[in-house]
Specification:
Blueprint lengths: L19 H20 L1 H7 L9 H24 L4 H20 L3 H23 L6 H4 L7 H32 L2 H26 L1 H6 L2 H6 L1
Helix pairs in contact: 1-3, 1-8, 3-4, 4-5, 5-7, 7-8
Amino acid sequence: MAEPIIERAPGDPRQKKINPGLKFALEMGPLIIFFLVTYKGEWLTALFPVLGEIGKPIFIATAIFMVMSILALAVSWILTRTLALMPLVSGVVVLFFGGLTLWLHDDTFIKMKPTLVYALFGGLLLGGLAFNKALLGYVFDQAFQLDEEGWRKLTFRWGLFFLGCAVLNEIVWRTLGHIYPPDLADKYWAGFKLFGFTALTFLFMLTQMPLIARHSPEEKTEE
């Protein structure tokens, strides 16, 4: 039987694992590079003048972001012969909105990309629960194991969190655009996109640890 293109269901012993450090690098690497290029676009253009034809730093960062997203998916495919669901969805959105950004020369589209991704993830998680599918297991299956009730509760909470992040991104980038000059607003938004959402995600994960502990099979076995 041919291997599936999309990763196997959570808990499937046939699912190939990726080193957690490498998995983190593949998921965060393109975002970090987007941030660095947005902040150092002028310096990069001075080194490689041809990049100046793309436009201002955020356009250059968008083009490189698209390339790095494809590269991350390719490395994941080479290592596991499958594509993780969430990075795949995010990659498709990056290519679509990044393409619109460069084609129309309008950074509104790349700034709305996180809004759509978060809203899409939130909708998928909450929608999956309506069909009794706790899709969050596809994201955290390699990090920890939970019983069925635990996955449902955690999926519901993450669904709401993602929807909140979608609203927050819209508020942040639109507000910055009214307060600061365009180039400075781009840099501040790129910084918040990397550090702000990463910090919020980390803090949210910490608040979920009691639920994870209560529904962990290992914890119940020890009790």
